[in-house]
Prior knowledge:
The complex is a heterodimer. Chain A has two helices and six strands.
Amino acid sequence: MHELSIIESIVDIILEEMPKHNLTRVTKVSLRIGDMRQVVPEAMQFGFEVVTKNTPLEGADFLIEHIPIKGQCEKCKHEFLVQSWLDNCPRCEHPNIQIIAGKELEIAEFEGT
Amino acid sequence: MEVIAIKVPLVKNILEANDKISDLNKRFFDDKNVLVVNIMSSPGAGKTTLISNTINALKDEFKIGVIEGDIQSTYDAEKIAETGAQVVQINTGGACHLDGNMIRDTFDQLDFDNMDLLIVENVGNLVCPAEFQMGEDFKVMLLSIPEGDDKPLKYPLMFHESSVLLVNKIDLLPYIECDVDKIKKESLKINPEIKIFEVSGKIGTGLDQWFNWLKEKIRQKNDSK
């Protein structure tokens, strides 16, 4: 259940940001999470509801944008979406692929009043 | 009156606070010339036995400290203490992984001026520990063959983040259906840089390769003085 640690970090970051924008309530939180991050959306949602009780974030919409895993061939530099870890480069068949997207764990934006 | 919500674009790494503490830890370890390895696996893969054997093999040559991470109990720390190494037990009280802060909290309980190698035994878990940096030089993963050869594709992040994979309990191969070549092939596919050693922590098979890898890394860190 590392979801709870992740949610606690999110809440800490937003509570710190709020006064900079003169916000007293948060109505929406949007995240970008790469598919390599093994977070369970239901656990995130549940964790968010529990952790934000009695905070200015209570009741805020909680949105997760999933970022697919993107690889780049080490040889021909071709970029493609990784469907399976066993795939070779679809263009030149080279086996070594660098992951260039899919490890995101970010707050994209939040909204408040 | 309608209240208009203000949109705040942020694009901020959620684990930034932990990453910052990890960077501070890393600087501290670099300053002390202590090599730090973070040992990760599922529960029961053989981390504690491997660490005991590693200490016994290296302790004449190097000074070693250990941080033991468990949800509860001091069982592992007691086992490690028998080797004579400095050891601290962290009980996470429920958390499934160690993080930068927990490691930092042990700093006043260990003598880093008398240490060449710090081994951190993470909480047994194939998911969460891969997400949290602690300031280590290398992540080392154990996979014991009774766990099955499907693990690289099921827990790719762990294999992607690790520098070394120890395929443990290799002595059980005659009794277990496990395709070790498949483990190796798929691990290398996920992480072409990963070093793979087949070992038995219990009877000692293959451990020399692991000890040699570790000794070389300790010497490199010491030479960077």
